[in-house]
Design brief:
By secondary structure, the protein is α+β, with helices and mostly antiparallel strands. It folds into two domains: 38 residues; 49 residues, no CATH class. It has three helices and three strands; from the N terminus they run E-E-H-E-H-H. It has a three-stranded antiparallel beta sheet, covered by helices on one side. Helix 2 packs across helix 3. The two termini are 31 Å apart.
Length: 100
Amino acid sequence: MVTNSKIFKVHLESGRTVTVGSAEQAEQFAKQANESYRIEIQEASILYGSKKTVREKLLQIQNIYDLDEVIILTPIENFEDRLKSYVLLSEAMAEISLSK
């Protein structure tokens, strides 16, 4: 289940850009930076679903962009749930090796 599908980018006048997970964090960071800023709100690129669905989406992205590797983050607060998501991802990707 995806509860927050937005990311907030703070663009500072100095050229630095920082990505945070909430509007409150964006405002707080921008004010602490003590320079002019602009906040950009974007839809996050989130893959979710069954092992098969996520695997197929990852392979599609790999083929479209001709990727050698992918870095995956699972921003799940609960440690056990986050660990489970990595185990499921590992199982899904291991099935590719076994099916070849």
